[in-house]
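dumping these here so i dont lose them again. two proteins, back to back, each one seq then structure tokens. dont judge the mess
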Amino acid sequence: MPAELTFAAPRRAKPPRHLADLSPDERRTVVTELGEKPFRAKQLAQHYFGHLESDTANMTDLPAGARERLGEALLPTLLTPVRHITCDNGMTRKTLWRAFDGVLFESVLMRYPDRVTLCVSSQAGCGMNCPFCATGQNGLTRNLSTGEIVDQIVAVARDLARGEVAGGPGRIGNIVFMGMGEPLANYKKVLESVRRITDPVPGGLGISQRGVTVSTVGLVPAIDKLIAERLQVRLAVSLHAPDDELRDELVPVNNRWKVAEVLDAAWRYAGTTGRRVSIEYALIKDVNDQAWRADMLGELLAGHLVHVNLIPLNPTPGSKWTASRPEDEREFVRRLQAHGVSVTIRDTRGQEIDGACGQLAAAEL
């Protein structure tokens, strides 16, 4: 990350080294140092990424005497599920994970008739301090490693493939970095995890780059770094207000990069990648849902390669913030459409299972 981005997590012990942390060349080096043939690295990766298998005891094509040693070196247990909770007839499943050092974070699996989406965390907690966000109120504990990010996906994909999620066996087609944390504040690990997610098996999981969405509150230098990667992932900007006065309060990082700067970076991303930018906008009753703000937002976005994702706020216990009235929500949509801006209202899943990221971890703590 550029020097001016100082969202460092507190120093803590590092997670164990994992296969997903390493490039194919690095995996071969580790395997060779263990006294095994280099091709064993590809076999391990084929099991992990291709067959979603993490237990070397089940990898019968590996020498029996080497399985435990290879497992300890490259496939240590990173995450332990604390609990799964479900709603929507089991089609939405939230998992609370505990890492090696006890930190907690969450992922959410959402099954739809035409797709399966997994929302993953990139940090334990978040340092952006947005006052309406449960994660932001818990503060930042630490960044997740590449392996911890990827292992959320592999573990959930394994359950899905084995039919352990309502709806029968299935496959994840979409990954959204919209769980706990600010992804671009953990830039290196998030980028590495995107590579592992999208590289073909056995290098990675083989999910299309176009099925991956990386969200940000607007870290402009990091957006420009992402542009230079020339990936085809979607960029989602959590805007939440069209004017600097309100956004300074709702998204404190706006004090460093104002609305105009954030949107200019978004248009650079769209212009370079050809991908439509998603503007995330949590509708908060009597705070940012006024018709005039809808008009202001429409004027800022009109004519650009953009889609607005309106999110009825999932309130957190004890918070003064709550979701907009249905009539105000409808008027907001109407005003944006009048400016020619594409807009949808996000399906509000998970409210009865503490759906807003951070609520389940906070309750456990």
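---- next one ----
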Amino acid sequence: MRLVFAGTPEFAAQALDALVLAGHKVVGVLTQPDRPAGRGMKLQASPVKQRALAAGIAVAQPQSLRLDGRFAADAQAARAQLQSWAPELMVVAAYGLILPQWVLDLPPQGCLNIHASLLPRWRGAAPIQRCIEAGDAQTGVTLMQMDAGLDTGAMRWVEALPLATDETAASLHDRLAAQGARLVVQALERWPTLPLEPQPEQGVTYAAKIDKREAWIDWQRPAAEIERRLRAFDPFPGGQAAWRGAGFKVWRVRVESGQGAPGTVLALHAEGPEIACGDGSVVLTELQRPGGRRGPAALQATSLGLVLGEPLDSQPPEA
């Protein structure tokens, strides 16, 4: 089968690798334009582009696929390119651009999306982070036949994956990327016989894009909720707290049962400071000061100068 692959980050690159390794004829790749990255903010190709070029696959990087939008010329060029590639099926994974109807209709077999959740739970941009934040017991991968809606298409394959109690977005990303890469290869081996199952109407949730402003820790929230959110936001955007106007990042905590006014320093343990929450408390076990590296709180908490019985700041330093 002639395939076009559309994707951008490492999650998608692993699926592209698997398709190429399995011997599928990937005739072209769509990926996001190169973006500034790193300390020098130099333009950097996406992981998918890097893998495609290494495999000798043609790459297109339109800024938009809307024929009537701001980058209509880009979209027109992309349409001509797709037509010349003449794919039978497009495989899509974390591409980052909305596929308009003309793209969905172009391949005779349509577009197959690798989505990192058990649809219809966690439709949208950040299913990996939101399932951890919500305390879900499991997630997984859904291979979905795309339609014009937001992750509303019929399901081709669903496979669950249990979440570990210490799961972070980074660890779950890697497990789901490997799972998605394996499943898409297996699905194409069985493609003519794979059923189409409409998504259930019940249980729909939306995984909103992560906003870095969500990093600010609200100590009024329960300790268990704060702990989950920190794992969900590792590696981005982490957790942010402040003491007397000096901000610092919180990466890991341990839930305890201490009680006190939310945000108050309850104890200064050898492992790290214990902070009261809306319900229970947390011991900060991994921190990062501005300009420094993340590491054990025991090595960093002293330099913060936290005072027993006093509260952390209730607002971010920039507020």
